[in-house]
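Recall from the previous lesson that a structure prediction takes nothing but the amino acid sequence as input. Here we apply that procedure to VanZ-like protein from Lachnoanaerobaculum saburreum. The sequence below is the only information supplied.
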Amino acid sequence: MNQYLIVSFQAVVLFPIVVAVFTLPYIAYNYHKYGSILSLKVLIVYSFIFYLLCMYCLVILPLPSPEKAATLHSHKMQLEPFLFIKDIIKKAHVIPSEPRTWLTIVLNKAFLVNILNLFLAVPFGMYLRYYFKKSFSQTFILSLLLSLFFEITQLTGLYFIYSGSYRLFDVDDLIVNTLGGILGYAIVGPLMIILPSRDELDEVSYKRGMEISLFRRVVSFFFDMAFVTIITILSRPLMKPFHIVRAFEIVTLSYFSVLPILTKGSTLGNFITSTAIVSNKGGRPKFFAYFLRYFLFFGIYLYLPMYIRQALEKFMLINTDASKDMGYATIELLVALLYFLFLLLTTIKAALHRSLFYERWSKTKIESTVQVQ
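The prediction returns the following tokens.
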């Protein structure tokens, strides 16, 4: 039992790393398909990932020591089906005339190991039927393939990292794990009467996807700026005469003002989050509206604070009177505070789905392009 607790703890340690790798594609997929991320879906999907991670850690851990690894030269296989039944009977020591000995059937190691393998795969079948909407035959096949993947992992010595197998390839594990998946499929059936169905979860997701949330805006902008950075790096040889900062500005302006004209109002970030820039009155805005929208956006949120700070620094350099340093520092602090309040107000308005200043002045807005399936 202590070994299982140690393995579970190692899975907990690895889980944040797996989440970090998985989260960005998961966010992109959900926003592209549904236009929203439902918290209950997140809980289900991430619990499924954690469950699979625990299973994988139980299969590969503990790893053999270097001394033991040096002695591994051949792969071990147990290919006799249902040998575990013979092992259980052999270790049970049942005396028909003594009922108390019957308990040895369920209390011996062979039975407990196999019952653990059975219940280890039960959640897999439950997830497949409830969330992934798999049929009985699909659950059977996927449960078999999952167990086969784990057995091959053991047979190959962790994909030939080790010279031989440090765990036994057992055909009985294939049988028991597959039965566990089927059992999970059967168990979750009655529970689906009280649990919200996958279709109901999707319906809520699509409904929320009709609105443009603050987080959706942030995700879209994050992807856009990532693409701008990549394009700037790739186009650097063509823009050698420009400083890297100036090249970044040129790419940013072109990306946000020219690309939407060619793609009917969508940047790559908009495409990923299933949104588009449209006119306040509906339809495509005039071509210069894209330029005005992002000129105002970057000008007010980024360049205006920079220019104000540069102006304050110039005043401080011109005036060498030390007695006025505190005054300039106070002005700088007040400007920073006003800028923070402006950002806070903008964030609140975006969270409340209110039109922002650069949208009103450019007569544009962000609209969801999610197609309800």
